[in-house]
């Protein structure tokens, strides 16, 4: 449906999120970089597009948030959510440096035309990575932001060489529809002395029994998982999940109608003899699978992008229409340099996935 390639003055188009508007149209927002630099701390704004035909075609970009209005280096990594009072909630990260990057929430009461002042979802300064399409509302109404904290080894706020890649997962909770936020009672760290990643880029989903299932990417060959049985207040220690994976994120949502779980990820870990290109980072293939038993087993595996396609694919946003699923994800091919510069969107019939 879309293939937003980098171009002069627009070096990167990356991760996004979807929401259905009241008139039935779809709003898609994503991180649009400008200038000459595609790195995570380069200049980026939040761009929006609208579809009137369930994602078949899309409007041109409209910029809805810029770093200048927040005094930030950039703004990126978006989640969208319908709030309890009917507002649209726009969650995205404000990056002030490697010492301070945190998710904020703005609201729109006019279906995305204008936005409120921002509320910080992460009390306390730190470099907190929250992926796109990650904020979750529980059946109780509680909002949860899963995020990974990274520290600096020195005093610099801009020097990448001082950045500690080992992430520690925290969860931030709101019981008043995003107006105030607090930290959960414990955090999750990876007890693996040889890991250089720790736990990174967490996500979560609520299961049918009310428990919460969270996961995070690692460099250990697997996604690691954590469980909560009290609405996200406390979490079990991290342990390997069923999902093999390179150091690349996994995304999951519940399918409307059937209630089955749909997961999107890269199922092959990096290993000693695997060739890892800069444009792919081993994030291939990109596959979809369905679980009919709350994540115990997975079936109907569908390849969205194969290794033969020659790129890397990651940071997937998921949205269901009446008969299809829209997937928007970062992609990189050999001439792109890295696997984050291009944004692709595919529409896949649910009948093709589930048979």
Describe the protein's architecture and organization.
With 355 residues, the protein is an all-beta fold. 1% of the residues lie in helices and 44% in strands. It is built from 1 helix and 25 strands. The chain has one helix at 350-354, and strands at 2-4, 13-20, 26-33, 44-51, 62-65, 74-82, 88-97, 100-108, 119-120, 127-129, 136-137, 143-150, 168-174, 182-183, 200-206, 212-217, 222-228, 239-244, 251-254, 261-265, 286-291, 299-305, 312-320, 324-332, 342-349. Strands 10, 11, 12, 13 and 14 form a 5-stranded antiparallel sheet that branches. The chain has a 4-stranded antiparallel sheet with strand order 1-25-24-23. It is globular, with a radius of gyration of 19 Å.
Helix run count? 1
| Overall 3D shape | globular
- Roughly what is the average pLDDT, rounded to an integer? 95
Strand content: 35-45%
């Amino acid at each position: 449906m879309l293939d937003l390639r980098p171009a002069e003055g627009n070096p990167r188009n990356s991760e996004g999120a979807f929401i259905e508007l009241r008139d039935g149209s779809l709003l898609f927002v994503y991180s649009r970089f400008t200038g000459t630099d595609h790195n995570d701390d380069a200049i980026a704004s939040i761009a929006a597009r609208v579809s009137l035909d369930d994602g078949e075609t899309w409007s041109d970009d409209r910029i809805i948030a810029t770093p200048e209005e927040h005094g930030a280096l950039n703004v990126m990594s978006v989640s969208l959510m319908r709030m309890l009072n009917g507002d649209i909630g726009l969650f995205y990260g404000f990056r002030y440096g490697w010492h301070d990057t945190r998710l904020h929430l703005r609201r729109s009461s006019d279906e995305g035309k204008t936005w409120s002042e921002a509320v910080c979802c992460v009390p306390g300064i730190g470099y907190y990575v929250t992926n796109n399409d990650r904020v979750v509302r529980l059946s109780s109404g509680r909002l949860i932001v899963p995020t990974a904290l990274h520290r600096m080894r020195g005093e610099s706020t801009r020097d990448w060489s001082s950045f500690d890649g080992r992430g520690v997962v925290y969860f931030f909770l709101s019981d008043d529809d995003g107006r105030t936020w607090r930290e959960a009672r414990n955090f999750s760290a990876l007890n693996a002395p040889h890991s250089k990643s720790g736990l990174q880029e967490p996500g979560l989903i609520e299961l049918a029994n009310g428990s919460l299932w969270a996961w995070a990417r690692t460099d250990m060959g697997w996604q690691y998982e954590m469980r909560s049985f009290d609405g996200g207040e406390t979490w079990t220690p991290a342990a390997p999940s069923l999902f093999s994976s390179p150091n690349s994120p996994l995304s999951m949502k519940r399918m409307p109608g059937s209630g089955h779980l749909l997961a999107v990820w890269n199922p092959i870990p990096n290993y000693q003899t695997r060739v890892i290109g800069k444009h792919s980072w081993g994030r291939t293939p990109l596959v979809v699978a369905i679980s009919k038993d709350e994540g115990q087993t997975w079936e109907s595996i569908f390849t969205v992008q194969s290794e033969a396609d020659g790129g890397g694919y990651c940071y997937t946003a998921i949205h269901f229409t009446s008969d299809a699923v829209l997937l928007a994800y970062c992609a990189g091919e050999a001439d792109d340099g890295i696997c984050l510069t291009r944004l692709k969107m595919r529409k896949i019939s649910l009948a093709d996935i589930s048979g």
